[in-house]
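Ticket 4471: requesting a sanity check on a complex prediction with 2-acetamido-2-deoxy-beta-D-glucopyranose. Repro inputs:
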Amino acid sequence: MIFGQTWLGGIVTSFLLFLLSKFHTSVSGESGMATEGEVVCVTGGSGCIGSWLVRLLLDRGYTVHATVQDLKDESETKHLESLEGAETRLRLFQIDLLDYGSIVSAVKGCAGVFHVASPNIIHQVPDPQKQLLDPAIKGTINVLTAAKEGGVTRVVVTSSMMAMTTSPNLPDDIVEAEDCWTDIEYCKQKGLWYPISKTLAEKAAWDFSKEKGLDVVVVNPGMVLGPVIPPRLNASMLLFSNLFQGSTEAPEDLFMGYVHFKDVALAHILVYENKSATGRHLCVDSVSNYSDLVAKIAELYPEYKVPRLPKDTQPGLTLGSKKLMDLGLQFIPVEQIIKEAVESLKSKGFIS
Ligand SMILES: NC(=O)c1ccc[n+]([C@@H]2O[C@H](COP(=O)([O-])OP(=O)(O)OC[C@H]3O[C@@H](n4cnc5c(N)ncnc54)[C@H](OP(=O)(O)O)[C@@H]3O)[C@@H](O)[C@H]2O)c1
Ligand SMILES: *[C@@H]1O[C@H](CO)[C@@H](O)[C@H](O)[C@H]1NC(C)=O
Ligand SMILES: *[C@@H]1O[C@H](CO)[C@@H](O)[C@H](O)[C@H]1NC(C)=O
Ligand SMILES: CC(=O)N[C@H]1CO[C@H](CO)[C@@H](O)[C@@H]1O
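Returned structure tokens:
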């Protein structure tokens, strides 16, 4: 009898799921989303970019395996669990980028992987090898190995604009940022370990892809700003937030472009879904000197003590995100990014 009920329940459920899948196809089929229910993994799902990506993937019907570093820490999990669709389609996994076994469990059963996790520390650190290079580089190799072993079809890796443009000798006539690589020797002289970690991690990803035949696509965001989902601020939003307290801290020698969290998340999804996407993708709405961005913020918010920074002397490159625009991305303009970032910081009490 119990068996019979379960069996009947199974038929009814299958039929309902069938109807639901038909319904989904009819509403979203035009946008090329043949992905309903597809399972994907987001490493670093708890972070500021990661949680935006998890949000948009859930919105699009994916089932998401999101990784966090500590499942017992509510500041890493609560904001994810309260996303729409999380109750039925989100699973959290605890990983350490240096623990291969933990990554295998998170990636198991996934069609795609978004490798977002990497230490995002732009200030000086006492032990760059341990704090930045190892988790970035070995972590990337661990994630790609697990993806390859698990039969994942495509991996999207979050690199950075800082893997492209951190260099004193960028020629003025560069057309495609995707051709530029950060100058490692120069960064070593200056102690710029974060750009080094991102550059070497991205190179390791390309080497792995070529040697092992894994399909890898890369997104290279500039400075990412906008509404924050987790309770803590990441490095880029902390730098931004500190401006409102009069901080004159400025990232040295870092060519800057600016982009909204949502657009970075969308870029990841576009390059995952559109199989014609290949290679690297600069992801910025606009590029300007940091001092010019700060001047714009000061102009928009005269009631705060936003400082004027001295003019920096980066060359006048005009780099665009043409590849992502060709894939259909329409970037949120920098003024709106600033406004949404400020609203979010106010509502969370980071600036008053
Ligand atoms: N923000 C930007 O302006 C910007 C620009 C270009 C590229 N990126 C890249 O975007 C990615 C996400 O950065 P974000 O800005 O969103 O920073 P974030 O909020 O600090 O996110 C970093 C994520 O990586 C995870 N992580 C760090 N070390 C780990 C380890 N050893 N094992 C497992 N997980 C680890 C963190 O987990 P916990 O939350 O548990 O600590 C967190 O989820 C990074 O790859 C970063 O380099 C950021
Ligand atoms: C940055 O500032 C320098 C010096 O004022 C200027 O020559 C250059 O065009 C600026 N770069 C950008 C991308 O705005
Ligand atoms: C995929 O990207 C190409 C450009 O690279 C674009 O022409 C095409 O329309 C995109 N396909 C979809 C389904 O959006
Ligand atoms: C520098 C810094 O504070 N980074 C934090 C950014 O936000 C993520 C997610 O909440 C934290 O894990 C980082 O420690």
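Notes from triage: The longest helix spans residues 2-28. Leaving this open until the requester confirms.
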